[in-house]
Amino acid sequence: RMEGFGYYTLPMGNEYRGWLWDGMFHGEGELGLPGGGGYRALWDRGVPTKGKYAFADGLEYEEEKWHYCDGYDRRFYTEICSGFKPPGIPQLTNLDPPKIIPEGCYDCGDGFYNPKTRIVVDYKRKFLRNADDEEHEWILRTCRRAWDITTEYKLKP
């Protein structure tokens, strides 16, 4: 069994970097996600006892006093850190510029969703999951679509 400091990649692409004991996460370690971000924790025989999640952009999740995107302040984290863009230049996602959505698909936050195949792929087009009915309806109702992207009107010379 694995013991000591090491790296372990799980089947879905998550990677653990930290201390192992008897084949389990044990001690300080971080479980990184393929799209960025991760959970840094103190582990006890595979169970996190104390930890903190950080998103790919560096925003740390606060369980008790979470004020990000709480209904009163709807700014993206990059807007909180860097300020607003000038008037007339919208910021559609936290990632700026946003990912270009393939035709007929939706941007569902961790990848693209094709409603015809009901498959979610990551931004590198690697399979993530099949969407169930509930997720399908939520994506269609709330997520940004490829055909929603507006272009500025330009006068002909």
Automatic annotation (TrEMBL):
Cellular component annotations (GO), alphabetically ordered: motile cilium
SUPFAM superfamilies reported for this sequence: Histone H3 K4-specific methyltransferase SET7/9 N-terminal domain (SSF82185)
Keywords linked to the UniProt accession: Cell projection, Cilium, Flagellum
Keyword Ligase: no
Top-level taxon: Eukaryota
Subcellular location(s) per record: Cell projection, Cilium, Flagellum
UniProt xrefs under InterPro entries: Morn5 (IPR042814)
Protein name, as recorded: MORN5 protein
Protein's organism: Certhia brachydactyla (short-toed tree-creeper)
